[in-house]
Every structure is written in C-alpha cells, then in structure tokens.
Amino acid sequence: MASKERILVIDDEEVIRDSCTQALAKVGHVVKSAENADKGLELLKSFDPGIVLVDLKMPGKSGIEVLEEIQAIDPNIIKIVITGFATVSSAIDAMKKGAYDFIPKPFTPEEIRVIVARGLERRQLLLESEALRLEQEKTRKNMISLVSHEFRAPLAATIQYLEVILGGMAGDISSEAKEMIERCDIRLREMLELLGRWISLAIFDADKLSENFKDINLKDLASESIDVLKSMAEEKNVSLILDSPEDLPTIKGNKVSIGEVFNNLISNGIKYNNEGGWVKISLSEADDYISVKISDNGMGIDNEHLSKIFDEFYRVDGRRNAPVKGSGLGLSIVKKMVNAHGGTIDVESEIGKGSVFKIDFPKTFEPENSDKKEEDR
Fold first, then answer.
1. Boundary-marking domain end, from 132, 157, 183
2. Residue 376: inside a domain, yes or no?
3. Domain total for the chain?
4. Which of 68, 78, 64 lies closest to 7 in space, CA to CA?
5. What is the rounded distance in angstroms from the CA atom of residue 94 to the CA atom of residue 121?
6. Predicted local distance difference test score (pLDDT) of residue 313
7. Distance from chain centroid for Cα 97
8. 51-55 and 30-34 as β-strands: parallel, antiparallel, unpaired?
9. Displacement of CA 94 from its chain's centroid (Å)
10. What CATH number corresponds to the domain at position 227?
C-alpha cells in the first residue's frame, strides 16, 4: 500500500490543524484542513480524502453530526475523532456514527501518525473487501445471464413446437391430446414469465439504470401502458381511465423501467378486478414531486397482507390453483424501480372495494453512481 494518502482535518483550533498537517505531511500524506464542519464537508466533496480527522466539540455543527454526514457520503472513509473530552459515552456515540478510533488532546506527532497508519490499514481492508464484493456481484450477474439464456432458449423453442402441433401443422390430434398440450403450453409460458421476472430482480442494478436517465413525461408513459394493456382490459370488460393535467412537468428517469412500473400495476388492477370494473391512473403535481395513483374497484387486499406484498415471491393467494396466476415478483420489482428513481410507493386497500397504489417521484433527483465513484478514486 502506498504511504501517500489524502487526509482531511476538521478542527476549530488552528494549532491542532497545523500540528496534524506537519506530522502527516512529513511521512508523505497530502493534508488539507478546515476550521468548521460546513467548510470541512464542502472540502470533503472535492478533496476526496481516505481519512478524516474530526474534532468532537466545535462551534456550530458538532463532530457527531459530521460523522453522520460522512458516513452517508462514503462509509469507506475512515473517521478518527480528535477530542479533549474523551469519555466512554462520547466514544460509544462516535463509534455508533461510524468513527474508527479516538485520539485525545494533546497528542504527539508520532501518536497521530500511528493512529492514522492503523486507519489506513483498515481502509485498505475495506476497499479490498468492496472490490471483492463488486467482482463477486459481477460474476453472479454474468452467471445469471448465462443460465437464463440456457433456460429460456429451450423453453421458447418448446412453446413454438407446441404451437405448431396445436395449429394442426403436424397432423390431426385428438381433443384429449389437444387439451393436454394446451395446458402444457400455458404452464411453459408461466414458467418463461417467472424466469424473466426472476432474472429482472436478480440482475437489477440501480447505478446501471441511472446511466440512462432522461426527461420522462409520465402522462405519455401512462398512455403507452394503457394502449399496451387495452386488449387485456377489453377481454375482462374493465375500463382504463387516465386523469392528468396537460402541463405536467417531466421527471428524470429510465423510460423502460418506469414503463414496467405502470404496466405491472395497471395489469394487476385488471387481473384482480371484476367484470365491468375500472382501473384509474391519476397524475398530479405537488411542490417537489409528481404523484401517481393507480386505483381500481376490484377484489382488494386484506390488511394482513399489505405489509408483505412488496416482498419477493410473496403472493396474497399463494395456492397453486389460485384463480389468478402470478410469480410474486412483480411488486418487488416495482418497488426496486421506484426506489431507484428516488421515489416512494405505498398501498391502501379494502376487501371488496379495491386498491390504491400511490407513487411519489421527485421532480429533481440525482442518483449516486457508486461504480463511477469507485473509478474516480
């Protein structure tokens, strides 16, 4: 490990800042300092230090608050607390907020160099662990993609063969055989859909998704989803209604993933509805977000299930012979996609009266791209 590292010192005492700078620069580190929390946090963004030395007691924002903000920005930054008031309770509080170690005032140049050296060893371990995790995740996703292709190709080919047989192009078949083949065809299609949803969930990457963020018109996307699901709604005699102002502001997002959110929630509103029911998509603007409500007057969901419906593989009606088939993955994918756009999703429902899914998308959202952050280090 190279001895040279970027180190930031945040302390309101000039003598402490100077002594840290001299002691650490002497062994090759690049040191910058700030006299208060606000300046320190601002410098943190441009300087990108590996270690931050933080005074626990400063005028204005405290060292504990600084620790919290650094932890939120990058948990791999090693945080060492400088204090003249070291107590067990303050140590515990600082450790809870992500501090790695303490150094009490006054300290010698050698003491600060030793504690920083320990911190650098800890940081190296964290970065190596994170690099290993990213490599393992990359390998996992590559394996999933490979396995999915190996599964999907024969499934799709089998469905095509069954379609040929059902179409009579392979000769006449008995009505009994036709019925069994039709059941096989249905089950294989369900399996293909389940596999597709599982893959979408398994390889979902919010950072990758954010690379394709563009201005999105939610009204246009809702209209496209209604067009796609129109035939499905007509089969069940369910009306699709769109209520949106003409001048709705755009949001930053990924068109394909938000389209999947609309498609999933609207199709659920159709599937779990009654003959002659309706599904309504309402869009509106608030101060800092765009609200989406997808409501229906269908079967509704019992209160005991509402807290679990966004869990992976959870189905309200988990019976194999349930009247409405599903994988239990759709809503978990929806939640991940909404969260990736900085949004929130909630649901209200009542048995026999229907459900309302409410999504709030922020008007302005800048996703953190952790992969890019690693490359910039």
1. 132
2. no
3. 3
4. 78
5. 20
6. 55
7. 23
8. unpaired
9. 28
10. 3.30.565.10
pLDDT surpassing 80 at residue 91: no
- Check residue 198 and give its pLDDT: 67
Considering the domain boundaries, does residue 171 fall inside one? yes
CA distance 268 to 326: 10
49 vs 59: CA distance, rounded Å? 23
Q: Which of 334, 288, 290, 284 is nearest to 309 (CA)?
A: 334
- Helix or strand or coil: residue 372? helix
* Domain of 24, in residue numbers: 6-132
3-class DSSP state for residue 340?
helix
Same domain, 324 and 233: yes
Residues 148 and 75 in one domain: no
Where is 168: in which H helix or E strand?
none
pLDDT-derived band at 343 (thresholds 50, 70, 90) equals very high
Q: Among 66-70, 196-200, 262-266, which is the least confidently predicted range?
A: 196-200
The 10s digit of each residue's pLDDT in 26-40 is: 999 999 999 998 999
**Chain position carrying tokens 């709705």:** 248
Q: Does residue 216 sit in helix, strand or coil?
A: strand
d(CA 63, CA 55): 6
Residue whose tokens read 């399996």? 191
Task: Assess whether 159 and 19 both reside in one domain.
Answer: no
Q: What residues form DSSP beta bridges with 356?
A: 295, 348
| Total count of residues recorded for the chain | 377
Strand partners, 33: 9
DSSP string, 190-210: HHHHHHHHHHHHHT--HHHHH
